[in-house]
Amino acid sequence: MTETKAYPKIYLGGDLVFRKNAQALFHTFKEICLTVRLHGVSPFDGQDEVEALPAGKDTSLLIARLDRGLMDECDGALFCIDPFRRAADMDPGTAVEIGYMAAQNKPMAGYTVDGRSYHDKVQAYFERGWKESLSAVHQASGKTRWLDADSMIVHSEGLLQNAMVEGFIRQSGGDIAVAEDIVEAFRVAAQTLSALMHKGAGETE
């Protein structure tokens, strides 16, 4: 059995917990983590007591508390930033977790199977859901602002997700891996985070 105690503990965040193949994904991701000297920790690892509880407010809040406890125990994180529930934006709970880990100055890396820009994701979302296109507003400065059908500015130009999400990951030293296959995207992100963390621990490349 591979010894994991000496490896940095990595929180495996994202909308993965809502997917029907979540357990299989986490098993695969943990195996990948071991190959790059990381110890992957799934949110499910701290939720054994939840299974027997009825659905409801108290159980939901317990899950949030358990997830926070796991993040406190981890040295870094790998986050899936895929669009959530057919929307342009990622899972909001995962965005909160990214901010929480950033506040603790812990290294992170992200991954996604959707390499479209945030602008393109918002545009596709409104066209698909409401048959509405984005509208361009040309400013006196020469810049063009894009508005959605609700007259909200489409922000975070040049990025895959909200600038706070992607910015916090990059400020921690990490990057965003993009691949059509989620396992491959995760593998690249795990390699990136491992190099960052082991280098930070004083190891040479």
Automatic annotation (TrEMBL):
GO terms for biological process: deoxyribonucleoside monophosphate catabolic process. The keyword Transferase applies. The keyword NAD does not apply. One of its GO terms (molecular function) is transferase activity. Keywords: Transferase. This is Nucleoside 2-deoxyribosyltransferase. The lineage of its organism: Bacteria, Pseudomonadati, Pseudomonadota, Alphaproteobacteria, Acetobacterales.
